[in-house]
Amino acid sequence: MRYSDRGGGLSAQERARREKLRFRAADMFAGEIAPARVARLLGITRKSAYEWYALWKRGGRAALVSKGAGSGRKLTDEQLERLETALEEGAAAHGWDDGHWTTARVAVLIAERFQVSYTPRGVAYLLDRLGWTGRFRLPMRRTARQTTQRTARRTG
């Protein structure tokens, strides 16, 4: 299980803290305490408690050991620099008539340039991390089709 903090995962100290929490939960499960009660006692979500319980049932405490730091990133630093350069060139330079970037368009750009798949929501998180969120003229959730429809209404 990964916990995002926008920087690519938890610190080593926070991972250790979460692991200790999972081990406390395992001890409670072994004592036949229901996951919902474990959640209340440990101050975690019921969802986490039930996920941990399922892992514990299948593999005991060992199944709750921290998996280590996640990569948290799909693009390298060099690719991120190239992406920012492409964004600065503008959407028109990449084939979109109205010249506006949307998260869907940036996802297409990333897929074409780097062969990496991002959802529009994932692109929004990435762009926010890079400081690009406020640089978009249109709401980031708007699709290229909606953009075309809106433009047609304005001129029609």
Question: SSE layout and pairings?
Answer:
Layout: H1 12-30, H2 35-42, H3 46-59, H4 77-89, H5 103-114, H6 120-130, H7 144-155
Short description:
This protein has 156 residues and is an all-alpha fold. It has seven helices and no strands. Helix content is 57%, strand content 0%.
Overall description:
The chain is mainly α. About 55% of the residues lie in helices and about 0% in strands. It has helices spanning about 10-30, 35-40, 45-60, 75-90, 105-115, 120-130, 145-155. Helix 2 (about 35-40) crosses helix 3. The protein is elongated and about 65 Å long. It starts with 11 loop residues before the first helix and ends with a helix.
Low-pLDDT runs = 1-8, 138-142
The structure class reads mainly alpha
Number of domains: 2
- Rounded mean pLDDT is 80
Estimate what percentage of residues fall within beta strands. under 5%
Radius of gyration: 22 Å
Distance between the termini: 51 Å
Order of helices and strands: HHHHHHH
Helix content: 55-70%
Largest sheet, strands/sense/barrel? none
Tell me the number of strands: 0
Query: What general outline do the C-alpha atoms trace?
Result: elongated
| Separate helix tally | 7
- How is the quaternary structure best described? single chain
Pfam families: HTH_29 (PF13551), HTH_33 (PF13592)
Domain Winged helix-turn helix: 98-133
Protein name: Winged helix-turn helix domain-containing protein
